[in-house]
Amino acid sequence: MSTLIAPEAANTPAVTGIPGPLRIGALELDVPVVLAPMAGITNTAFRRLCREYGAGLYVSEMITSRALVERTPESMRLIRHHESETTRSIQLYGVDPKTVAEAVTMLVAEDRADHIDLNFGCPVPKVTRKGGGAALPWKLGLFREIVEGAVAAAGDIPLTVKMRKGIDSDHLTYLEAGKAAEGAGVASIALHARTAAEFYSGTADWSAIETLKNTITGTPVLGNGDIWAAEDALRMVRETGCDGVVVGRGCLGRPWLFGDLAAAFRGEKVKAQPSLGDVARAFKRHAELLTEFFEEEDRACRDIRKHVAWYFKGYSVGGDLRAKLAMVQTLAQLDDLLGTLDADQPYPGADAEGQRGRAGTPKRPSLPERWLDSREIQDSHRAELSHAELSTSGG
Questions:
Q1: Which residues pair with 193 in a beta bridge?
Q2: How far is 41 from 331, CA to CA, in rounded Å?
Q3: pLDDT digits (tens, 9 = 90+) for 273-301
Q4: Helix, strand, coil percentages for the chain (3-state, nearest 5)
Q5: pTM for this structure?
Q6: Which of 5, 174, 236, 335 is least enclosed by beta carbons within 10 angstroms?
Q7: What is the pLDDT of residues 214-250, one digit of tens each?
Q8: How are beta strands 244-247 and 33-35 bridged, if at all?
Q9: Which residues are catalytic?
């Protein structure tokens, strides 16, 4: 018998003090929840799977503006949406105002998106060392020029930004960047409450989300960082006053988290308690959707391997079977392996919850030489920026 939803949930009292729908430009979300873009994760397959469990706005993997303008096969594949994705959301990354505007113009002119987000939060060294990602808002004039051009190109399509607190604790950028983004007319601002130096380590500084919300009064502010359960999302809203939440690593191997979040924001105390059989069915469904997305069973099986540890976290699944799942080559083989699991094994509780994904360790961010000397872009940095657009995401 499935225990995906706690059986006592229907009789529990409603939760009070829950915010209503979230409006992002012309879009209205009944549930103020956004799936964070994650490289190699938030493709069409994973987005569709998450939709099957809950509600919200599901954003694509980050796509570089230059690659999109050049119409590379991979970028064109990544911007495709399944017909069931009724709100098509695409995240772009770019460092050149003209190229970003061209990419936005293309998406709008070809009717490929209902929402566009700009990434200014990537902490990956090979991006920041070229001046991109979380390093870029330090150059406030360049940041403003990119956002203003993108908003103008987007027209009636809501354009949003996602960023971090700054480069490190001595070089915070989120308040100035937030004001500039609001002045440019963005539809919402999402803040991952860590600096680039922190990567994903430690505890997210939710007080920064509160400060941004108190500073930006005319544009919705979304909070991101350390939402591992629906209770975390409600607590973030209560503590910071933010208008909605962005969920990243917390949903890895747990697409049903979006069902928990939808219920929580409806004021219901509902919590998914998937049996091992429920998890196996979700894992198989994910692999099937990946096969449809890649149009290659072999590639889909290679891709699903990285999800094994996340899905089966906390469950009694032997090391030998985990190793075989992490080397699966066909859907038939996957089906056989999943068939050996104890489908009735109950939800393990806390052991299946909490942090997932690599946190990394704090480190000094890699930046272009003398990047921090001035908030204005220097000629010597333009060459660095020309190499900054890499197919790497974070945020």
A1: none
A2: 19
A3: 999 999 999 999 999 999 999 999 999 99
A4: 45, 15, 45
A5: 0.93
A6: 335
A7: 999 999 999 999 999 999 999 999 999 999 999 999 9
A8: parallel
A9: 122
